[in-house]
Amino acid sequence: EDRSRSMHRCRRAFRVSAFRRCYWVDVPPEPMAVGRSNESAPRLASRVTAAHFQPKLDGWRVIADVQTGRMYTRSGAELPSTAPGLEHVRDALRNQSASNRFRYVDGELMHDGGRDRIQGSINDSTGDGLSLHLFDCVLETCFSRRHEALQEWLTRAAEGVLQLVPTQQGEVGSVADALVTLQEVGLGHQKDGFEGAVLRLDDVLTDGGGYTIAGGRSLNALKWKVREDDEFEILVLNEQKPKGSGMLGSVRCSRNGAGRSKYFTALVDVKWSEERRKQAWEQRRLYSVKHVGEEERDGFEPQWKAVVEHNGINETGMPVAGRLVGFRHRDDLPPEEWTAQQLLAELTDALRVTHGI
Fold it and tell me: What is the 3-state secondary structure (H, E, C) of 259-284?
């Protein structure tokens, strides 16, 4: 009965624009970003809809053409057609039975070893660890019908290369109730290693199925996740590609652990402006001895730590989905978080001032 009500509401609520975009042409659709639940809640709370919950993945958002196997990022850039690591994904897309309902699917390109491994695997001849997780298809109707069409199309998994993102259907009711459930579902998904959860609504406010404005945020797909932040020792700063950009791209940090497992790389948060990235790169000598001239290295004392926002620390001590959000000076840290070298220097200074030692 709930499903019938959902389909009826979908047919009644969805109105195709007079300027609807044709999603069968060679030009890929422009996807909207997932909205933020806390920002959209006031606008949607009183509305009634059918709710669907999915885990929030941490990979590369990809729109894929199931006819040609070509893949596009959210900005519209095509992933290299000659990249050897993507050939098995393209083959899997083309080998699926053709759909007479849609041409493009929406998903997340994932790597078994985490987001930072995707770029390297794309250029690798085997593409080991890469898979495409599908959560939607580009079809001008509500999510209930889009997901039904996607399930019908993905009748068999291509050796794990194409995977359907698990979707939990909620009750038909108010968006306010759905947002409460979203937090509960999100906490469960985080325990399973995901970023959080995504709530997909049956066109509470029509936005072309979520594929109208590139870079815009859909009101029919709302994300929820909890982020934490911790300070980590800085090993080296990396310039944003291409070389010579003069902007900070990522930071290599150390954590508790041994050998290679002691280090991890955190990308700069997307909220950073170009000016801030440039300033950080110009001041890199402050943050790491690796950027200091040899004649100055003996007297270098680390004064800063990298502040990394993440979704919790996993069992190996690695921050999950870590992003660099800033730098924190040691004076802004409690003494228990100082390094032994910093603590010794502070005590030496105190003894010198107090006792003239």
Answer: HHHHEEEEEECCCCCHHHHHHHHHCH
* Alpha-helix residue ranges (DSSP H) falling in the chain: 2-13, 37-44, 87-95, 118-122, 143-153, 175-191, 274-282, 284-287, 340-355
Q: Are 203 and 13 in contact (CB under 8 A)?
A: yes
Q: Structure tokens of 322?
A: 């870590």
**Which residues are registered as beta bridge partners of 172?**
50
Asked whether the predicted pLDDT for residue 350 surpasses 60, the reply is no
Pairing of β 162-164 and β 71-73: unpaired
- What's the distance, Cα to Cα, between the start and end of the chain in Å? 83
What distance in Å separates the CA atoms of residue 342 and residue 303, rounded to the nearest whole number? 8
Under 8 Å between Cβ of 250 and 263? no
pLDDT in tens, 125-183: 777 889 999 999 888 788 888 899 999 898 754 557 999 999 998 877 888 888 889 98
Please state the φ and ψ torsions of residue 205, each to the nearest 5 degrees.
Answer: -130, 120
CB 209 within 8 A of CB 144: no
Cβ contact 328:251 at 8 Å: no
Distances (CA, A) of 136 to 26, 108, 139, 325: 19, 10, 9, 31
Q: Using omega within 30 degrees of 0 as the cis cutoff, is the peptide bond preceding 166 cis?
A: no
| Assigned CATH topology for domain 228-355 | OB fold (Dihydrolipoamide Acetyltransferase, E2P) (2.40.50)
Correct CATH for 2-221 of 3.40.50.150, 3.30.470.30, 3.40.50.2300, 3.40.980.10: 3.30.470.30
